[in-house]
Amino acid sequence: MSMDANEHDESLSPDGTPWWELSYEPGSTRKRFGQERRLAAWLWFEKEVGDTFTMREIRAALGPDIADDSEHLNRRLRELRKADWVIPSHRNDSQLPRDTYRLEVKGGRLWIAGEKQKYKKFAPSDRVRRYVLERDGSRCTICGVGVGEEYPGEPGVKARLTIGHRVPQERLNSRGAMDDMDNWRAECSRCNETVRDEMPDPEQYDEVVAGLKRLNANESKDLLHWLRKGERPRSRLDQAYDRARRLSHVERHALIGLLAKRVGES
Ligand SMILES: [Zn+2]
C-alpha cells in the first residue's frame, strides 16, 4: 500500500503500533486497551470476509498478554457480535471444524474511541431483574444452578445470577418486545456468556416434541398445567429449598441437622 505524507495507515494507532498489539490505551500507561477492541482491529485489517480463523491464531496475532483461555476469548467474540459482527463457529455452522470461526460480516470498528457505545443495548431495570430472579426461584433456568451455589464438580466456583433474553435481543425489532417479561429469564453468568453461541435458535418445535416422549403421565400433566397457566408454580418443596438455600452457611448447617432428626436419621 503506498501512502501520501498526509495520509495515514488506519491500522496503526497514534504511536505507530497496530491497534491489535496495544496493551494500553494510546497515550496511557495503565488503562488497558480492551481485548475485543484489539480483536476487532485484527479481524478488520488482517482478515477478509469469508476467511476463517482459530483461537490459536488470535493468540498468536494479539500477543502474549491476551488471555490464554478460550472461554475468555469466546466472550470477546460475543462482544463483537453485539456490535454487528457476524462470526459463526462450528456450533452454528456444521461445515466449520471445531475451534474454527468464519468472518462473515465486519461490524463496528471498536478500536476507535466511543464506537462501542453505539452498540449499547437496552438494559433492564432493577425492578425487572428482581421480578425475574424471584419468579425463576433464584436459579439459572438453563443449568439449574442456584445463586451462590458452587458449580457441580468445581468446588469454590460460585454461580452469579443475571437475567438474559430467551430470544436474543438482536432478533427482536421493537422496544416493546425487549421489555416483555416472558422473554427474560434467570441465567447464571456462565450460561449467559455461552448460551447464544451454543443455541443458534431458541428451540426447535420438533425437538421439543421429541423430548416429551421421555416424560411419564404425571410429568406430562404437570407440564400441561404449567403451559396453560403460563408459568411454573414452584411447589412447597421447591419454595422451601429456595428459602433454605438463602440462609447463611451456619444456619443452613443447623437446618440440615434439624431435618436429619425429623426424618429419623440418628
Ligand atoms: Zn447456568
TL;DR of this structure?
With 266 residues, the chain is mainly alpha-helical.
List keywords for this structure.
4 domains, binds zinc ion, mainly alpha, 266 residues, elongated, 6 strands, two-stranded antiparallel sheet
Give the termini distance in whole angstroms: 81 Å
Tell me the β content.
5-15%
* Average pLDDT figure: 81
Number of domains: 4
Structure description:
The protein is mainly α and 266 residues long. The protein folds into 4 domains: 19-119; 121-202; 203-231; 234-266. It has 10 helices and 6 strands; from the N terminus they run αβααβαβββαβααααα. It has a two-stranded antiparallel sheet with strand order 1-2. Strands 3-4 form a two-stranded antiparallel ribbon. The chain starts with 34 loop residues before the first helix and ends with a helix. Bound molecules: zinc ion (ZN). The site of zinc ion has 8 residues, from strand 6 and helix 6. Zinc ion binds next to strand 6 and helix 6.
